[in-house]
Amino acid sequence: MKLFNALARLFGRRRVEAEMDEEMQFHLEHLTERYVNRGLAPAAARRAALREFGGIDQTKEEVRDAWGARLLQDLARDLRYAVLSLRRTPGFTAIAVVTLALGISVNTVMFAFVRDAVLQPLARNDARNLVAVYTSRADADRGWRYFSYPEVEALAEQTDVFANVAAYTFDVTAIGTGRDQNLQRRVVGMVSHSYFDLLGVTPHAGRFFSPDESRPNASIPVAVADYGYWERAGQPANFIGSTVRVKQRDYTIVGIAPRGFLGLSSSVGPDLWLPLGEAHHIVDGDFDNPNYHRLSPIAQLAPGLSAEAARARLPAVTQNLWNQTAPNEDRQLLIGAPSTNDLQDDQPNDESFMGLFATLSLGLSAVVLVVACLNLANLLLARGAARRKEIAVRLSLGASRFRIVRQLVTETFLLALMGGTLGLLLSTWVDHMLMQLSADAFAVSQFSFNVRPFVDTTTLLATLGFSAFATLVSSLGPALRLTRPSLITDIKATPEGGADASRSGRFFSLSNLLVVAQIACSLALLFSAALFLGSVRHARHADRGFDPAQQVVANLDYRITDMDTEQIAARQQTVLTRLRERYGADAVATASNIPYNFDLSRRSVYPLDALAQANPETGEPRRQRAGYTTVSGGYFDLLDIQVLRGRTFNATESTDPAGPRVVVIDQQLATFLYGDADPIGQRLYLDKEALNSGDTRLSHEVIGVVRSPRDHVFNEPPARLYRPLVQDPSPNLFVHLRQPDPIAALPDVRRTLDELEPLAPLLAVRPLASYVEQHLSTLVIEICGLVFGLLGAIALVLAVAGVYGVKAHQIARRTREIGIRLAIGASPRRVVRQIVRQGLAQAAVGLAIGLGLAFLAGQVLASMLLQGTSGQSLMLLGSAAVLATAVFLATWIPARRAARVDPAVTLKSE
Amino acid sequence: MSKKKNSLLQGTVDLLILSSLRTEDRHGWGIQQRIEQLDSHVLTLKQGSLYPALVRLGDQGLIHSEWRMTENGRRAKYYGLTPAGRERLAEEVAQWRAFSSDLNLLIEGA
């Protein structure tokens, strides 16, 4: 209030002063009148009144004090002085501003990332008391599964624990019309009517779904568009009420989701939301069937119920649930924080990676800011030493220490403000660059990507906070030190430093200690960045288990045609044959899926003796979940997937739908199912009914084991199983073509497929490598590499600039001493050697402390880094060597310059 | 007011001003007159204390001010109590009563 009033008075100063004057005159006139009434002549009465008043100007001054105007005037004076002072030293100002800008921009970008990825989703979920509901099972092969719709309904009845329950599922399907112009494979979210309400959002326009629409198998074709989808459509005024074709079914758009809404995900989401009642059209399932498990539930806890209290009631809820839906079910219910990492998963997602990643990113960027502050503090100390005499004179003339400290802090605040502004501009540019990179990549992906406005109030406040932190950290120490009362020594000091020069040259001077601290922090930072980069490099160059080079992939989606399975199989066989005629027999293969694609196809695999190995408590047969791909002949050769044992499909198996039931499995599945035993010739079942029948003719023979193709940068590849495409035709077909120049071949491939297959929509014709490059995990790795590489580079630049700045200053102030030593016979080489030795001794102490810090950082990072962090010692030594070299150069260059000075000239100038 | 009396009244300026505004809005001169009316030999308030105190009380939201015409047709700045000012006055009065009561007891006991 007082500050507000003070500011208001400052800006309306003329009016306020006039009013004060009028008020005082009014008072004075009454006082004069009283003296006149007592018998004094008017002039004498006026004088008496003025005497009693005690001086109008003094009173006004006291009123101004009460306004707080004086404080503001002082601040304005300090700022003016700071501007003049910084203008006098443009070199110092530029270095300081750039140093701070680097530190602040890194922290601003990191803050924005953490805000988007971690803080906002967490805050949203916490505020609404949301939990995800999971099921766990004791048997080893698969602990988690989705829920059926009847189970979700039964959960919603447990009102003493859950106030509201919603269910959701996702799928990738074709949205749009036309053969390949507007038709795209995109993610569609299918949700129960309470989903939006639970997440606390209201539509941007129109409405969300009604309970009738989301009832299982309701078949009311309505859709809610993602805000980004609406934007990309050009935001037409008649958008609501228009239709969109999804998997060849027309949906009426009834609403638009609010801007930035991605469901539970923090960064990517679907293009369209459909009511759950439409889900059976998209994923071909019966949602009324209690054995059809496809949904993920999310719930809001009953009012006032904590997560712990809810967990205590879960056993009773579990019992009620299975009593109503599946009496023989042995699963337990669990609740946990809703996942914000992925669109959907069938098991609780571990959010700790995101949290740890965010903490470490912020931690590392904070170290950059600290290094920048140390740097600035040292520059201020060096600059302040030259101003020591001026400060001492001001102190001796009666200026308070507080007043001078305030002046020095104001100067730094001004620097921090300029650094913050530049930092904000820099971070906006970096953010724009990252967003552009991501947007380009996501333009061809299947997700809607949420690009949030970067410079919002929170970011501005955070930047201001970082600037204030930088001001405090970098200015207080030097300011207090420079105003330490030692007047006589300081007044006697020469402009070059004199007494202080020897002080700053001492090994344990504050300036040198700051250099040591800077080197130590920089080493820890460089090493952390090197670890990350090593890890990123490993991920980037990891053996994928297949060769994406020289490969074009075309995606034909038969799901949106009216063909039945037999017709689809026949068409696909024709297409394959024609393509082989056109491009060569060994240059074409087809498959139901490709690596690095959004793939939810999983199958339960039962070894022949799965029943014998059943869980003794539940009786559930032993099984393993595995990725499921059907492939044409020649697939493994074409993708260069190495065959480890046995063989791949022969001509008969690849072409005869009634051919022998054979499978090729990857090494992961082989290990899971058979351990060290030879898998070749073993038999397995691909569905429970076949297993229960006991008919071995329904089982499949393992004929080969191949290397596991990696389909995600971070994780180990999932177990995978392959079958001949003709035995299980996939309505979604990926055609692989080997082409020497995939990009150049795209138009020809597209044209050929247009001619060969006019019936099935051609969704994409792309080089296989682009799927790898534009996969979410690859993008994350690339962004991590960019960010941590930048952090390391900034730390190195700051460390070198800081050490160089301080050393150059220290050495410049020792010019007289160096001149004398040269004059009395010391060789320039010896002088340089001695100065460099001192610098390296400091570097050694800094590096020794830094090694300890780096070791600790390595321990923390090891838990979250990807594979490939071996060779840590080498990285540590490399980082230390880089820093030591930088310090050597930062000391050697100014020392060499000082030693070249003519001693006679130096002494004469003194 | 003598120095001795002045030291006795230190810390009561706010109470004096707020009390003087209890019954009606007054300008600065009016406030000073009201205080002096009570006992001009004991309670006086110098302008140098009055006007800064009015600014401070205004900034605290305890009094409000506005320009009005006096009975003589002159323009003057009138001050009045806000609801918060009335609450503060009640508190200060209660505190003062307790203080003076204890002080009286102590003095009489001595």
UniProtKB/TrEMBL annotation, chain A:
<keyword id="KW-0812">Transmembrane</keyword>
<comment type="similarity">
    <text>Belongs to the ABC-4 integral membrane protein family.</text>
</comment>
<dbReference type="InterPro" id="IPR047928">
    <property type="entry name" value="Perm_prefix_1"/>
</dbReference>
<dbReference type="InterPro" id="IPR017800">
    <property type="entry name" value="ADOP"/>
</dbReference>
<keyword id="KW-1133">Transmembrane helix</keyword>
<dbReference type="Pfam" id="PF12704">
    <property type="entry name" value="MacB_PCD"/>
</dbReference>
<keyword id="KW-1003">Cell membrane</keyword>
<feature type="domain" description="ABC3 transporter permease C-terminal">
    <location>
        <begin position="790"/>
        <end position="903"/>
    </location>
</feature>
<feature type="transmembrane region" description="Helical">
    <location>
        <begin position="408"/>
        <end position="430"/>
    </location>
</feature>
<feature type="transmembrane region" description="Helical">
    <location>
        <begin position="874"/>
        <end position="893"/>
    </location>
</feature>
<feature type="domain" description="MacB-like periplasmic core">
    <location>
        <begin position="93"/>
        <end position="316"/>
    </location>
</feature>
<feature type="domain" description="MacB-like periplasmic core">
    <location>
        <begin position="563"/>
        <end position="725"/>
    </location>
</feature>
<feature type="transmembrane region" description="Helical">
    <location>
        <begin position="839"/>
        <end position="862"/>
    </location>
</feature>
<dbReference type="InterPro" id="IPR025857">
    <property type="entry name" value="MacB_PCD"/>
</dbReference>
<dbReference type="InterPro" id="IPR050250">
    <property type="entry name" value="Macrolide_Exporter_MacB"/>
</dbReference>
<dbReference type="Pfam" id="PF02687">
    <property type="entry name" value="FtsX"/>
</dbReference>
<dbReference type="InterPro" id="IPR003838">
    <property type="entry name" value="ABC3_permease_C"/>
</dbReference>
<feature type="transmembrane region" description="Helical">
    <location>
        <begin position="353"/>
        <end position="381"/>
    </location>
</feature>
<protein>
    <submittedName>
        <fullName>ADOP family duplicated permease</fullName>
    </submittedName>
</protein>
<feature type="transmembrane region" description="Helical">
    <location>
        <begin position="92"/>
        <end position="114"/>
    </location>
</feature>
<feature type="transmembrane region" description="Helical">
    <location>
        <begin position="513"/>
        <end position="534"/>
    </location>
</feature>
<keyword id="KW-0472">Membrane</keyword>
UniProtKB/TrEMBL annotation, chain B:
<dbReference type="InterPro" id="IPR017799">
    <property type="entry name" value="Tscrpt_reg_PadR_acidobac-type"/>
</dbReference>
<dbReference type="InterPro" id="IPR052509">
    <property type="entry name" value="Metal_resp_DNA-bind_regulator"/>
</dbReference>
<dbReference type="Pfam" id="PF03551">
    <property type="entry name" value="PadR"/>
</dbReference>
<dbReference type="InterPro" id="IPR036388">
    <property type="entry name" value="WH-like_DNA-bd_sf"/>
</dbReference>
<feature type="domain" description="Transcription regulator PadR N-terminal">
    <location>
        <begin position="17"/>
        <end position="91"/>
    </location>
</feature>
<protein>
    <submittedName>
        <fullName>PadR family transcriptional regulator</fullName>
    </submittedName>
</protein>
<dbReference type="InterPro" id="IPR005149">
    <property type="entry name" value="Tscrpt_reg_PadR_N"/>
</dbReference>
<dbReference type="InterPro" id="IPR036390">
    <property type="entry name" value="WH_DNA-bd_sf"/>
</dbReference>
